[in-house]
Automatic annotation (TrEMBL), chains A, B:
Organism of derivation: Chlorogloeopsis fritschii PCC 6912
Keyword entries, A-Z: Amino-acid biosynthesis, Cytoplasm, Histidine biosynthesis, Hydrolase, Magnesium, Metal-binding, Zinc
Name used for this protein in its record: Phosphoribosyl-AMP cyclohydrolase
NADP keyword on record: no
Compartments where found: Cytoplasm
Gene name per UniProt: hisI
Length: 129, 129
């Protein structure tokens, strides 16, 4: 095996042979999306310099942006301390990562209710039942 | 049910009842770690304003930083377009997210070999076998 690929052997793929991969804009740090990679998609990403994932819905290698043109040129690639997640810092072509046309897939914001606010709203809801 | 928690019903938990959660520094966008949440840990995170995960190794609710002091105060919480990943923007107390003492868990950088460089290094390796 190519010595340069030995690090892949350290990764902890799940029972489907997949590992989560976070794509982050290399310019401003925006988290763009999270998808899944397998061994083949990691090798393709390294050899082409463009993000390849494994499409769980289509059960096939997915060259991100092959159809839309919104490819991701990989500037840096990291794996985490326990080898079960990958982080890609990418140049997102078209500045659109999401299939909805949004820049980032993370556009659904949720309100946080620390301490008493949460309990109050929960109590109100319970009383309203 | 509290109307404020209805969004959780939209999430796609995996067969273990878990969903990946990315923690990102809310100040400079550094991706700090990726861990897993279940329904209970999401509710705890919302009610306390501090990140709670599900520890897969210990099979228990994990209040991040309860032992080390490196808690994560959640500033913003998002879920993605298809409801299968969460993003937390956090104030990382102590500026250390990783159990190794590193700021971020993503400290292992991998070299990328686009196009001919990759093929050349692969060929060299093959020849050396």
């Amino acid at each position: 095996m190519n010595q340069n690929l030995l690090w892949i052997e350290k990764l902890k793929f799940n029972e489907q042979g997949l590992i989560p991969a976070i794509a982050q804009d290399y310019r401003d740090g925006t988290v763009l999306m999270m998808a899944w990679m397998n061994y083949e998609s990691i090798k393709k990403t390294l050899s082409t310099g463009e993000a390849h994932y494994w499409s769980r819905s289509r059960s096939q290698l997915w060259h991100k942006g092959a159809t839309s043109g919104h490819i991701q040129k990989v500037k840096e690639l990291f794996y985490d301390c326990d080898g079960d997640t990958i982080l890609l810092k990418v140049d997102q072509i078209g500045d659109i990562a999401c299939h909805t046309g949004a820049r980032s897939c993370f556009f659904n914001a949720v309100q946080i209710y620390p301490q008493s606010n949460f309990l109050n709203s929960y109590s109100c809801s319970k009383r309203g039942q």
